[in-house]
C-alpha cells in the first residue's frame, strides 16, 4: 500500500506518516457515515475529525449505495485534484469527480483519501472494475446542491448533501 508521504498528492503528516490508501481510518465502533431520506433520492452524511475525513466518509456513504465497499478490492487507483474555496461546493465537486471517474472507467470504488491545503484538494480512490462477483446496488448519478451542509459538529465536522439516484 502506498503511504501518503510517498505520494506527492498526499503530503506526509508531521510524524512522517499519513493516511494509507486502502486502509480505513480507525474510529470508534460507531459508523462515520449515515443517510437521510429525500423524496426519490437519498442524502449522504459524512463525519470526521477533520473536514477532509468527513468528505472521505461522505464518499464512503455514496459508493456504499452502489455496492458493498468492503468487498471491493483496491486494484485500480483514481486521482482527483481541484481548487475550491467554498467547502460546500468542494464536497459536491469531490463526490462528482469520483463518480465521473468511476463511471468513465467502469470502476467500483471502495477506499478513499483526501488532503486539503487551503483551497486546494488532492484526493485518491481505490477500487476495481465491475464484475459479476460484485453485487450492484443503487446507481448514484451525482451529488447535488440540495440539503448541502458543511458544519462543525462538536470536535469534528459533519457534511451532507443529496445524491441523485
Question: What is this structure's SSE topology?
Answer:
Layout: E1 33-38, E2 41-48, H1 51-64, E3 76-83, H2 87-105, E4 107-117, E5 120-129, E6 142-143, E7 149-153, E8 156-164
Antiparallel strand pairs: 1-2, 2-8, 3-5, 4-5, 6-8, 7-8
Helix pairs in contact: 1-2
Describe it for me?
- A hairpin with a 2-residue loop joins strand 7 (149-153) and strand 8.
- With 165 residues, the protein is an alpha+beta fold.
- It has helices at 51-64, 87-105, and strands at 33-38, 41-48, 76-83, 107-117, 120-129, 142-143, 149-153, 156-164.
- Strands 1, 2, 6, 7 and 8 form a five-stranded antiparallel sheet that branches. It has a three-stranded antiparallel sheet with strand order 3-5-4.
- It has one domain: 3-Layer(bab) Sandwich (Archease, Possible Chaperone, Chain: A, domain 1), CATH 3.55.10.
List keywords for this structure.
165 residues, Archease, Possible Chaperone, Chain: A, domain 1, five-stranded antiparallel sheet, three-stranded antiparallel sheet, 2 helices, globular, disordered N terminus
What is the compact description of this entry?
With 165 residues, this protein is an alpha+beta fold. It has a single domain (44-164), classed as 3-Layer(bab) Sandwich (Archease, Possible Chaperone, Chain: A, domain 1). The protein has helices at residues 51-64, 87-105, and strands at 33-38, 41-48, 76-83, 107-117, 120-129, 142-143, 149-153, 156-164.
Amino acid at each position: 500500500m502506498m503511504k501518503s508521504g510517498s505520494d506527492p498528492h498526499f503530503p506526509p503528516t508531521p510524524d512522517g506518516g499519513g493516511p494509507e490508501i486502502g486502509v480505513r481510518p480507525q474510529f470508534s465502533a460507531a459508523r462515520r457515515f449515515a443517510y437521510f431520506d429525500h423524496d426519490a433520492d437519498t442524502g449522504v452524511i459524512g463525519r470526521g475529525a477533520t473536514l477532509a475525513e468527513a468528505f472521505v466518509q461522505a464518499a464512503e456513504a455514496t459508493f456504499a449505495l452502489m455496492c458493498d465497499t468492503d468487498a471491493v478490492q483496491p486494484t485500480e487507483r483514481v486521482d482527483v485534484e481541484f481548487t475550491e474555496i467554498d467547502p460546500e461546493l468542494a464536497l459536491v465537486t469531490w463526490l462528482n469527480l469520483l463518480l465521473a471517474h468511476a463511471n468513465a472507467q467502469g470502476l467500483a470504488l471502495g477506499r478513499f483519501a483526501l488532503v486539503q491545503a487551503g483551497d486546494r484538494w488532492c484526493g485518491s480512490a481505490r477500487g476495481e472494475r465491475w464484475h459479476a462477483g460484485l453485487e450492484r446496488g443503487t446507481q448514484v448519478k451525482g451529488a447535488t446542491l440540495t440539503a448541502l451542509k458543511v458544519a462543525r459538529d462538536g470536535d469534528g465536522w459533519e457534511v451532507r448533501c443529496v445524491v441523485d439516484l
